[in-house]
Design a protein that fits this description.
With 254 residues, the chain is an alpha+beta fold. The protein has one domain: 4-Layer Sandwich (CNF1/YfiH-like putative cysteine hydrolases), CATH 3.60.140.10. The protein is built from six helices and 13 strands.
């Protein structure tokens, strides 16, 4: 489990979990927390229980949403059943003892906190969600719940690294249309008409532009660091039939 000092507080527990320490086997070894994978559901449940335990919350109070690469966020007042999870990509709560979990396998998990106000958030920021505003939407919902932007700290967790994220010739256009300054997030790839994109830096840029008090990234390349992380892109490149999901989560303490 990876933690970051920006989120350290007696009121908060958080972690960007690696793939280590779980019950799953094979392609899903070992801490696969995604029911959407082809892994045994019982093992996923056990993995989530282990993650929840590290955060000092009961397993049934670790919630994840049905992620759809959107810019939508919800306020969590009580845990939901997996079958009724909202189709959003950001969550916010003021309720102690609920852990907000984000599932990733190359996209960027972002954890937020205003420890003074007792407001936390989490979002799933793939390129599409980041471009359309999931970071801002999550922070806005936190503000509605009593947080102040200048007190919010936010950390971007492990995601696909800038040397691993090769994109096609059409990919930079919407980023450059939104802000020509985003050109510095792209560099030529080895293949002609291809680029390498720095997703983590882009998410950090969005965070800093909305005026959060502090923002940082843990580092870590989910594609390149095979023993530590699951990766959708790596699975595709290898021709593997499936892949595990990492979980990143944050909880307010009672």
């Amino acid at each position: 489990m990876i933690t970051h000092e920006l989120l350290d507080s007696p009121r908060i527990r958080h972690g960007f979990f690696t793939r280590a320490g779980g019950a799953s086997e094979g392609l899903f070894a070992s801490l696969n927390c995604g029911y959407g994978s082809g892994d045994d559901a019982g093992r996923v449940t056990e993995n989530r229980r282990r993650a929840a335990e590290r955060l000092s919350v009961p397993a049934d109070r670790l919630v994840t949403c049905y992620q759809i690469h959107s810019a939508e966020a919800v306020v969590v007042e009580s845990p939901w059943r997996r079958e009724t999870a909202p189709r959003v990509d950001g969550m916010v709560t003021t309720v102690p003892g609920i852990a907000l979990g984000v599932l990733t396998a190359d996209c960027a998990p972002v954890l937020f906190a205003d420890a003074e106000a007792g407001v936390i958030g989490a979002c799933h920021a793939g390129w599409r969600g980041a471009l359309t505003g999931i970071v801002e939407r999550t922070a806005e919902e936190m503000t509605r719940q009593g947080a102040r932007p200048g007190r919010i700290t936010a950390v971007v967790g492990p995601c696909i690294g800038k040397l691993s994220y090769e994109v096609g010739p059409e990919f930079p256009a919407p980023f450059l249309a939104a802000d020509p300054g985003n050109a510095d997030l792209f560099r030529p790839a080895a293949r002609p008409d291809r680029f390498l994109f720095d997703l983590s830096s882009y998410v950090l840029r969005r965070l800093r532009r909305i005026g959060v008090g502090a923002a940082a990234a843990t580092g870590g390349d989910t594609v390149a660091e095979i023993p530590r992380f699951f990766s959708y892109r790596r699975a595709c490149l290898r021709g593997e039939r499936d892949y595990g999901r990492l979980i990143s989560a944050i909880a307010l303490q009672h």
